[in-house]
Write a structure and sequence with these properties.
single chain; mainly alpha
C-alpha cells in the first residue's frame, strides 16, 4: 500500500523547488542551500530531507525547463522546413541557457558537463542538420558539432549581453553565418 505524503511535506517541497529555481537563476551553482531554505521559509534539514544532495536539488529545479527543451527540440527536429527547425533549436537552447545561470555555470565550470552538453547537442542536431543540407539552407561545411559549439559559444554571450535584445541580435548574427547563400 502506497503511503500518502503529508500535505505540509508536499507544500514544503514545492516551496523549496520554487526558491531553488529563483536562487539558481540569480546566483548560479554558487547558490547556497541555506539561502534556498531561507527563501522557501523552511530549515536546511527540510531541504536535505527532500533532496539529499545539492546536485539532486539542482536537477529537480531545472527538470521542468530541461524537459521543455527536450520537447521543443523533438518538435523542431520534425519540422518540415529544416532551417526553421534548426533556428528553433538554437534560439530556444540559448534562451534557456540565458534564463538559468546554473545551466551556464554547469557548462563552464565542469569540462565533463561541457563535453556532455556538446555531445548531446550534436546528437540532437544531426538529423536536422542533414536535412538542412539536403534542402540547401545550411552551409555544406557546417556540421552538427559546429552548430553545437556555436550554441555553447552563445552561452558566453548570454552571460555578457546587457539585455535580451543584444543576445537575440547575436543569435541572429550566428544563424546568418550558418545559413547557405543562394
Amino acid at each position: 500500500m502506497t503511503r500518502r505524503r503529508r500535505e505540509d511535506s508536499v507544500r514544503n517541497e514545492a516551496q523549496v523547488l520554487t526558491a531553488a529555481r529563483e536562487t539558481l537563476d540569480e546566483r548560479g551553482l554558487g547558490a547556497d542551500v541555506r539561502e534556498i531554505a531561507r527563501r522557501a521559509g523552511v530549515g536546511v534539514a527540510t531541504v536535505y530531507r527532500h533532496f539529499p544532495t545539492k546536485d539532486d536539488l539542482v536537477q529537480a529545479a531545472m527538470r521542468t525547463d530541461l524537459d521543455g527543451w527536450t520537447e521543443v527540440t523533438a518538435q523542431a527536429v520534425e519540422e518540415a522546413d529544416a532551417w526553421t527547425g534548426l533556428r528553433t533549436i538554437v534560439e530556444h537552447t540559448v534562451a534557456t541557457m540565458a534564463r538559468h545561470r546554473a545551466i551556464l555555470d554547469g557548462m563552464t565550470s565542469r569540462a565533463e558537463a561541457f563535453a556532455a552538453c556538446h555531445a548531446h547537442l550534436a546528437e540532437a542536431l544531426s538529423g536536422v542538420v542533414a536535412r538542412a543540407h539536403e534542402q540547401g539552407t545550411l552551409r555544406r561545411d557546417v556540421s552538427a558539432g559546429d552548430v553545437g559549439l556555436q550554441i555553447l559559444a552563445l552561452s558566453g554571450v548570454a552571460q555578457l549581453a546587457p539585455d535580451e535584445q543584444t543576445l537575440h541580435r547575436h543569435v541572429g548574427l550566428t544563424l546568418d553565418g550558418l545559413r547557405a547563400r543562394t
